[in-house]
Amino acid sequence: MSHPAPALPLWPYPRWVAHRGAGKLAPENTLAAFRLGAQHGYRMFECDVKLSADGVPFLLHDATLARTTNAPNKALAPVQIAQIAIKDAAPEAIAGNHTWHTLSQLDAGGWHSRAYAGEPIPTLDGIAQFCIANGFFLNIEIKPTPGTERHTGEVVARHAAGLWAGQTVPPLLTSFSPEALEGAQHSAPTLPRGLLLDTLWSGWLETAIRLGCQAIVCNHKLWDTHTVNQAKAAGMRTLSYTVNDEPTAQRLIDLHTDGIITDRVDLFSPV
């Protein structure tokens, strides 16, 4: 006798998600990017969150500061207790090796264009305040400094649970790191989680089930009829990144996937 597939979880989130705030139209992972994405009609945003050396959740994608801030590597003194080592990166270049006070002084907008010069790195608290005040939805990608996976998942999830306490729709927590999702599951089990995948590594679906995930968030190329059916048969919602052209978006819509993360907030209408 065949068993019916588990019911899909309730899904209050819109299909269209603005990648890092507004894709590439504004400096990623800044409040300015969120504001611009909102001006284009987006109601859900994706961002990357990691921890400072003193435990403050803040928005940044890379492990190092060089690409999206004006951090002068040799001028910053990393906190001695952190000293996370990353291959080919000096300790002072690693974002998680610095206190929030130091990180808060950096320019996270000037690299993008002069119009955004002086835009600061935001905290998760600040982004939460913006989203909650405007009724927006958030996908928090937990982006640990290498070596801090479980701890980062625990702290970010606990922090998010507190920030969204009493709100109708919580943020969606995602990560490429099963260890980070384990930490999130431990400290804030009621927050929805999603496993990020760039490849279909052995055991991906079993891992998502073990972690109590509600969603699989894939490189869009990985979705086809078979993989969508696999995920849905396991009771998972299906999301894709990063979708920037119309044929790809239409293919995913035809596959009845649940979410599309895009840089092209200027191309796709989220309505």
For the biggest sheet, the summary is: 8 strands, parallel, barrel
Any idea what the CATH architecture of one domain is?
Answer: Alpha-Beta Barrel
**Coarse structural class:** alpha/beta
Choose one word for the global shape: globular
**Structure summary, number of beta strands:** 9
Compressed to H and E, one letter per element, the order equals EHEEHHEHEHEHEHEHE
Strand order of the largest sheet: 1-2-4-5-6-7-8-9
Question: Mind telling me the C-alpha Rg?
Answer: 18 Å
Distance between the termini: 42 Å
Tell me the helix content.
Answer: 25-40%
In terms of DSSP E residues, the strand content is 15-25%
What is CATH's topology name of one domain?
TIM Barrel
Low-confidence spans? none
What layout of secondary structure does this protein have?
Elements: E1 16-19, H1 31-39, E2 44-51, E3 57-59, H2 100-104, H3 124-134, E4 137-142, H4 149-163, E5 172-175, H5 178-187, E6 193-197, H6 204-210, E7 215-219, H7 225-233, E8 237-241, H8 246-254, E9 259-262
Parallel strand pairs: 1-2, 1-9, 2-4, 4-5, 5-6, 6-7, 7-8, 8-9
Antiparallel strand pairs: 2-3
Helix pairs in contact: 4-5
